[in-house]
Each structure stands twice: as structure tokens, then as C-alpha cells.
Amino acid sequence: MNAPTMLQLTRHADGHVVEMRLNRPEAMNAINTAFSAEITAATAELAADPSVRAVVITSVHERAFCVGADLKERNTFTDAQMMEHRLVSKQAYRGVLDLPVPAIAAVEGFALGGGMEIALSCDLIVAGEQATVGLPEVSVGVIPGGGGTQLVTRRVGWSRAASMIFTARRMSAAEGKDLGVLDEVVPAGTARDRALELATAIAANSPVGVRNAKKAMRLGMGVDLAAGLEIEDGCWRATAFSGDRAEGVAAFAEKRTPNWPGH
Question: How many CB atoms lie within 10 A of CB 180?
């Protein structure tokens, strides 16, 4: 992959875990149009790479995961330019959300607005204990538009999401964990290490199994239980007759570590 300007991509765990570091420190990783386009391109390439088993999103900035949209850029937009930017922005968030492998956000410092929505687009969020999170968009005359209204509500339920979004308040990591917005809170400065530890554990499992488990979970969220069980059955079939299933059973019988074919 060509090295992008505002993203750093590093491989871990024999290349199966990709760390995507947000790298616009001069703006505390505020997301402008160019940054959105890079996120879209990077996530599309990762989604198409069968060797990738997990993605961890981190930041090069010690005090900010991402402070959200670049309001200085937006302040210069005409209405037409705003709509053009909107299309690019939506693709970036969907790129993270639609990754076929588990994605983990490692949050240190501020994760606000669109930065929090990048984290919410991941499957798991690990935060340092000094992190500050929130969706303050209504305080500047907009609403969360990177999936925030939908993803927070699905995570924590209507009333808790309403409290978070309608008040536009910033929350400590402890409050975010209590609310259910964050999955783990760890000592400050260790969120990246913990996220990579989780990603490495995920990458040790069947890549076919993990991808199909995520697919079943995501597709099943928006349907009733009966339809969800049918989705699960289809994903089970796609896994049960895969090379990974055959290797997993053989490795268990032979008491050895599986060598997953990944197909």
C-alpha cells in the first residue's frame, strides 16, 4: 500500500493485525476532506486483503485520538461544497464500519464528534483512563453524522444515547464505561497495547470463523430473531464447509496449533 500522508499503517502478529494510526497531529487529527478520502482508501484496501484478521485504530497524538470534523475547513464551504464533503465523509465512516474483520479503537485523550464516531464504527473501544469522549455536535448546530445517532443508540439504548447526544457533554472514560459507550478502560497510555493484545488474540482464531461471526452479528442486528437465526445459519454453513473448519478439527484431534488456510 502506498504510504498515505495522514495515516500510518503497521502490521503486527505475522502481518495479520494492521494498526491504522491517525496522523494529523498538528490538528489533533481533525478530519478534513483529504483525511476522509485517505481513510476510505485504506479501509477499502484492508477489506480486500484476505491476510488481514483484525484492525486496530490508534493515534500518533498522545492527547487526542481525534477531535472530530475540521470545523476550520467547513467554515469556508459553500452549501454545494458542504454536500460534496458530506459524500466523502460518509464513505470514510462506512469504510471503518464495513470492515469484514474485527476493528478495535484505542482511545487516549480526546475522542469527540467525528472522532468518537470513528471509535463507534469499530467493534470494540478500549480507552485510557484519562480519555475524554463525547458527541457534542448539537452544540455547534449540527448532529452526529458519521453514524453516531445510530451506533450509540444500538450500544447503550435510547435514553442513555439521548442523554449523551442531547446534552452534548464531554464524558470521562469512567463515565463512558459506566454508560456502556466504552468497552474497557485501562491505565493511561496503555490503550494501544491492550487493543493490540485483543487483536492478536482474535487473529489466532479461524479467519473464516471470525469474519462469518461478525457478518452474522452485524446482519442480524436489524432484523427480528427468526430472520437473525436464518442469517446465522447461512454464516454457519459458509464456515462449516470451509478449509478452516477441517483444519480446526484436525488440529484439535492432533493437539497442535491450527495452521488456518483462511478459506
Answer: 13
